[in-house]
């Protein structure tokens, strides 16, 4: 079985991008079943302007003109909590910034292939582990965003605006709540009323007119939806 990974290589030096591309090609030849689809970018701005929600890994130069690798990584994390980030740098002290953006590792220039292959093994393993985590992908004004379902507390609809409330912040975009119901209801979410689609893992109690979340947020529950929400809660608790 062939495992295809989409990789973004970001470096302002063409020679450095070519070096990473050669290392990826060598890794493919030495590891049957792994294929890389490579997209090259000469700046952080170029990557962010064309950011794809299907990217599995970003190999990111730290020292670039304009938006550097650390700033680019922070912007990526605002959109994508799961993509694997690997810093590529001339100076080891930059590696400490990886903790800020949950980078998997860093590689020193010039690339040592054996160190590179070791980190690629970790990246492939991380991707396989991530494939078991369900996510929700949507488009905002800033670009595509991918969020683990377990991080979403509830979705809110205000007129034609959807607000996705997560543990790490909120995301807004134009849409309808009903378009998410068939996708999320089988995955542990339930409709509280026409404005709220709530993640049952965060519901602490359901009262007469509202449900209370772990952070004490209270969401209105309609009379019609209350019995269905209670039934969904009972089913969810029995399965946990």
TrEMBL record:
Q: Give residues where 4-aspartylphosphate occurs.
A: 61
**Gene3D superfamilies to which the protein is assigned, alphabetical:** 3.40.50.2300, LytTr DNA-binding domain (2.40.50.1020)
For molecular function, the Gene Ontology terms on record are: DNA binding; phosphorelay response regulator activity
Among SUPFAM superfamilies, the record links this protein to: CheY-like
UniProt KW keywords: Phosphoprotein
Report which superkingdom the organism of origin falls in: Bacteria
Domain Response regulatory positions: 6-124
Residue ranges of every copy of the HTH LytTR-type domain listed in the record: 136-235
Q: Name one Pfam family in it.
A: LytTR
Presence of the UniProt keyword Phosphoprotein in the record: yes
**Name of the protein this chain belongs to:** Response regulator transcription factor
């Amino acid at each position: 079985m062939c495992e295809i990974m989409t990789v973004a290589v970001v470096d302002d030096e063409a020679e450095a991008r070519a070096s990473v591309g050669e290392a990826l090609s060598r890794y493919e030849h030495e590891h049957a079943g792994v294929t890389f689809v490579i997209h090259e970018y000469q700046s952080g701005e170029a990557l962010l302007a064309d950011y794809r929600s299907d990217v599995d890994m970003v190999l990111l130069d730290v020292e670039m003109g304009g938006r550097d690798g650390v700033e680019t990584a922070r912007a990526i994390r605002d959109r994508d909590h799961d993509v694997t980030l690997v810093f590529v740098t001339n100076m080891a002290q930059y590696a400490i910034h990886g903790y800020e953006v949950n980078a998997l590792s860093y590689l020193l220039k010039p690339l040592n292939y054996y160190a590179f292959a070791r980190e690629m093994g970790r990246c492939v393993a991380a991707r396989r582990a991530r494939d078991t985590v369900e996510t929700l992908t949507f488009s905002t004004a800033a670009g595509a965003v991918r969020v683990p379902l377990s991080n979403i507390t509830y979705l809110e609809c205000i007129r034609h605006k959807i607000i996705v409330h997560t543990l790490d912040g909120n995301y807004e975009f134009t849409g309808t709540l009903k378009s998410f119901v068939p996708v999320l209801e089988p995955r542990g979410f339930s409709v509280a009323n026409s404005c709220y689609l709530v993640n049952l893992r965060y519901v602490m109690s359901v009262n007469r007119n509202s449900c209370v979340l772990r952070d004490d947020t209270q969401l209105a529950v309609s009379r019609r939806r209350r019995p269905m929400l209670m039934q969904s809660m009972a089913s969810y608790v029995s399965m946990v």
